[in-house]
Structure formats: C-alpha cells, structure tokens
Amino acid sequence: MSDTLHIVGGGMAGSEAAWQAAQAGVNVVIHEMRPKVATFAHKTGNLAEMVCSNSFRSDDDEQNAVGLLHWEMRAANGLIMAAAEANRIPAGGALAVDRDPFAESVTERLMAHPRISVSYEEIDCLPDEGQWIIATGPLTSSTLGQAIRAETGAEALAFFDAIAPIIYAESIDMSKAWMQSRYDKGETEEERTAYLNCPMDKDQYEAFIDALLAADKTEFHEGETAGYFDGCLPIEVMAERGRETPRHGPMKPVGLTNPHQPEIKAHAIVQLRRDNKLGTLFNIVGFQTKMKYGAQAEVLRMIPGLEQARFARLGGIHRNTFINSPTLLDDRMRLKSKPNIRFAGQITGVEGYVESAAMGLLAGRMAAAEIRGGDLAPPSGNTATGALITHITGGAEAKTFQPMNVNFGLFPPVEGLKGGRRGRKDRYKAYTDRAKTEWQLWLDAAEG
C-alpha cells in the first residue's frame, strides 16, 4: 500500500494528480464515488466532468495570469490541458471546450494508463496509512466532510457555486441577437464571432432587474450561510448589491456593435458563449443563478432574443466546501496533523478548473517524489503555480481566507517597473517572462 498513491476524487485535480504521478512511475488508484453516489451538479460518471462553465478562461500566456497557468501546465505535459486543446471550441481569446468529449477523453486516457486504476466507492474517513490525496472538490460528501472537520477541529467553511443556464441555439432569435466577441478579439473570424450578444435598452434593463430581484430564489438550509465567492456571484446577488452592478459586470455594453441597429448604443448586453463544438448549445456568460426553475425561465426570457429560449439545463446552486489551508497544510500540501494525506484542488481554497488542476499537478508530483524516496520542493512563487501554492499554504491571511483565482496580485513585484494602469502591459509581460524561465528551471530540476 505504501508504494501506491490513493487519490480521492476524480475531478480536475484528482485526474491531473493521477496522471502526473503515474507518469512519474508510481501506481495510482483513483477512488471516485460517482456514479454510485450522485451529486447535485454531476450528470455522468466521467472523470473530470465540467459542472459549471465550459471555459478555462483566457489563453493569453503573456498578459493574463490564468493563460500563464495554461502555459505552465502544458510545459509539464498536463493531461487536462492536452484534453482541453483536443476538444477546443471557438471562444474569442478564451480556451473553451466541448464539455462531454473533453471529460470522455480524460477518462479514456486515465483508464488506458497501465499504472492507473479506478475504484468506484465512497471514502468516508482520513486513512492513517499509505499516501493519499484528497481532491474531492466543491462537492465533498458529507461523511468525508465530517471526517475532515473532526481531524482539523475547524468549523465548516463553505460558499455556494451557482451554475449558469444552457440554451439551445436554434431557439435564439437572431433577428435581435448577433455574433461578436468583445472588441472583436481573436485571430480568426471564428474567434472574433465566438459570442452571441443580446442587447437591452434602458427600460428593458430596468424591467429585467426588477424581475430578477422579485424572482423566487432557492432557500438555504438551516445553518448554511450565503458566503459567495465574488468571482462566481449569482446574477441576482449582483443586482441586490446595486441595480447598476450587472451592467458593469457580465452585462456591460462595451466593445460591441449591434449590426441590426448600429447607430444605437445598447444600455446593457447579455453575452452567451458556445457550450459545445457543434454550436448547438450556448451558456449565458456570468449568469450563475439560484432562482427557482419556473422563475428562472420566465425572467431569462425577458432578455431580447431569448423570448422563445429553450433550456438544455437550467441554473442551480450547490455548496462548495474548502479547508483553511494556511493553517492546515504545509508547503508540500500535506495535512500537518496527518502528513500521509495531501489535499488538492478546490477544497484547498483555489477557485476555477485550471487552478484546481494545477494544484492536482503539484500534489501528484510531490506525492510521487515522496513515494520514490525523494522530496520535491514547491516551485518559485514567481510562477503561476508557485504563486497559488504560496497563497494557500501561508501567503493568505488565515482569519479571512477565501477561495482565490490565480491573478498577478499574487506575484512578487518585478523591480524597476512602474505601477498603475499605464505600465500594466509591460509589467504583466515581465511577470510572465520571469515565470516561464523559473517554471522551466523547476521542471528541469524535478525531472532531472
């Protein structure tokens, strides 16, 4: 058992951890409770199933921190990024994937690996022996969650992730909507027209906000609190924070021109992004929601162009549990009170598919090194992966610890560069150049 790495959870983090460890020569068992034990958000038994957006966000590795994280994972021969590239669909400057073929390809490659096996069962405790990675993500089972709380002595920490609705493309009125990426971003015509846009005038916007605020919402269970991650706010919660908030967020009208009425500037614009390669499904960008299904369909059909919308999936809401990593984990991602156990993915307090997979990549490599009698130090905090691990294992303030996407605010400053908006382009390029050099050095040392 000591020569085998056991991974609990077959999501983005668990799948990447398994791949990296197996590629390093270690036998791996993935313990996945689905499909025997279902969750609210998952629909299949595939590994690495996407339950919210189908986007890995920006793919710009020179000016964007998540794009840099893409680059680092590709350089480390990451499975998740390889599968994403193989199942890519147009999304302007973003990396979006055809979700079902993506998960199927990850599952197939893991199942075909001679060092990887999958055990379909629920793990409900923290084992005392063997090398383990807990990568159960936002939907950790209640029994395992209780075991984690019992071991750490910490109160449950949770926020709520809301799922955006998905609409059948053929039900969208293209006499009102049009295809265009914001600021015509993208190198090809397909990329420059990757988003579908629905315009609103001021009266339509105000009526929509009124309906949004009045709609029936999902109630929380007793003892639960609505502590949302600001990067994934339900659209109605945005409206509750101020009527203009959505118009400065996902409904901002900038960088787009309505070809049906080019002389009229929209007051607000709702964007939809392709959700599959065929272009038959679109998800509403930034419209995660906790509205009840009946109210949800009624309110969303107030959007011009979506009056006759048919929904492949309505939005929903689910609990997302995470641990207070700065107090509980060491810099090798090990639980301080049980160092045979590592944590990876969203349960550590990173947010997003890519960030979760990156923490799986790191945990898998670190666990494999320990099993083989070595020790793998974390990468420099100047890298995107290193900035994340530094943040969750000590860089964040433990008392106010909340889930975090990768961003340049986590990176140490580059000396000699001016701050502020005007110097941002040069500053970001300096961050990414430095990160790529140091990431490659770390990979060479880890694999040497």
Tag the structure with descriptive keywords.
cytoplasm; NADP; methyltransferase; 17 strands; EC 2.1.1.74; FAD/NAD(P)-binding domain; alpha+beta; 448 residues
Report what the structure shows.
- It is built from 13 helices and 17 strands.
- It starts with a strand and ends with a helix.
- The model has no long low-confidence stretch (mean pLDDT about 90).
- The chain has 2 domains: about 5-155 and about 320-445, FAD/NAD(P)-binding domain (3-Layer(bba) Sandwich), CATH 3.50.50; about 160-315, Elongation Factor Tu (Ef-tu), domain 3 (Beta Barrel).
- The chain is α+β, with helices and mostly antiparallel strands.
Query: Which fold name is given in CATH as the topology of the largest domain?
Result: FAD/NAD(P)-binding domain
Q: Superfamily at the CATH H level of the largest domain?
A: FAD/NAD(P)-binding domain
Strand order of the largest sheet: 6-2-1-7-17-16
Low-confidence stretches: none
E-strand count? 17
- The CA-CA distance between the termini, in Å, is 26 Å
Net shape: globular
Order of helices and strands: EHEEHHEEHEEHEEEHEHHEEHEEHEEHHH
Provide the domain count: 2
* Helix content bin: 25-40%
Assign the structural class, choosing from mainly alpha, mainly beta, alpha/beta, alpha+beta, or little secondary structure. alpha+beta
Instruction: Write down the CATH class of the largest domain.
Output: Alpha Beta
Question: How much is the average pLDDT?
Answer: 90
Quaternary state of the chains: single chain
Cα-based radius of gyration, to the nearest Å: 22 Å
CATH architecture of the largest domain: 3-Layer(bba) Sandwich
GO biological process, one term: tRNA methylation
Pfam families: GIDA
EC number: 2.1.1.74
Cofactor: FAD
